[in-house]
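Researcher: Going back to the complex we discussed earlier. I've cleaned up the inputs and rechecked each line, so this should be the final set. Can you rerun the prediction on the complete assembly and write out the structure?
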Amino acid sequence: MNNKEFIAGLAERTGLSQKDAAQYAAQLVADMAFHLEEEDVLSIAGFGTFEVKKKLERVVVNPGTKQRMLVPPKLVVNYKPATTLKEKANSK
Amino acid sequence: MEAKISIQDLTLGLAQRVGVHAAEADTFVRAFFDLIAEKVVEEKVVKVKGLGTFKLLEMSERESVDVNTGERILIPGHSKVSFTPDVSLRDQVNKPFVDFQTVILNEGTSIEEMERFEEQPVAESPADVDEEEPNPSVEVSGPDESDGNTTSPAYEIPASVADGISTSEPEPEAATVSEPMSGAGAVPEVLPVNIIHKGVSPWFALVYFLLTLFLMSLSYYVGYHHLLVLDTPITAKPANVSRQSTPGEPAAAVKPKVLSPADSLAEARRQAMKVAQQYPQVPGGKYLIVGTRRVHTMKVGDSLLKLALKEYGHKDFAQYIIIYNQFQNPDVIHVGQEVKLPDLIENGPAEAEEGCVEFQFPR
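Model: Rerun complete. Updated structure for the full complex:
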């Protein structure tokens, strides 16, 4: 499901126009991104948790060329699905 | 920072941003996440622009080990929801580290070396002034070698000079007095200089080396030409000068001189002068040669300096022996050679002062 289909589905559910739904969705995503940038923890009941984790720098080896590379430290977004979502995924 | 944001906070934020009722925003936010959850299970992939991609991954069953019991267990196949953040979200979150890039490491570089590189700028600063070698291991040995080079001539010059003079060259006695001293003085001077300034710039080392060399040559010159040691014969009184000379020698003139009271001193001196005329004299010497005390046959290990020290109490008197015996080359005295030891009397004070001015050794 791509973004277009997703917006369409969202508009259908909420009774909003596709344009509004797209705008709301964009605003919501921007808000989430803002919170994540502040390294907040986004805990959404029934869906999961978004969290920013720090990854230390490390040396990796390309197994094909045996070339070693130093990967810099970074901040990544980590998502952990809620238990209810996990169960839903497995019950199917 | 690191606050826990719940769905209510998102709702409020959305309501503020868009300018809608909180209730409406709440409906939308819940619908948003419900739809993702629903569709990810149904269609396995949900893409949300600006947020990322949710995927349902099928995990096949696999074997594992129970961490508590150590038994092998079978983990049944299951589904898992994964999330890959959108590029824009990923970059936004990683903004603090955006300047870092993956670096390809060259062969031979190890992590320990990288850590050492970080330490090096501190430790290297005094060392790399020294020489052009960038390798720290070479640098350590570098100053040592240069030390050896700079100190070895400092050692050799006084050593060879002192050896040559004290063992086989009895004529410039004063040189031997001053030379080992100057050598001894110069060498400790050299060593601490090189040790202390090991890390200092090569210019300082060069300047110190040249300065040391200059001081050494200066002291050698001074010692060789008796510039500072002139008064040594004056202060050193021959131990046996007043001793009575052996009979048979022309000592008759000496005897009354030594034993006579003060009023007859002048006359005794005049007599002694007359006697002294017959013998070669040390030009400007403080003592006059007035006869032969005894004849010494040189043995192995003897030197004129030793002889003078033993006979007269000071090695400076070797010059009287040399003059008296008319040695052409006082450096070469053979074993078994007979050396006449002169009888000495004190010269007049006026002449003695004259003698202080300059004295050239017979070469």
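Model: Worth noting: The CA atoms of residues 296 and 339 of chain B lie 5 Å apart.
Researcher: Good, that matches what I expected from the previous run.
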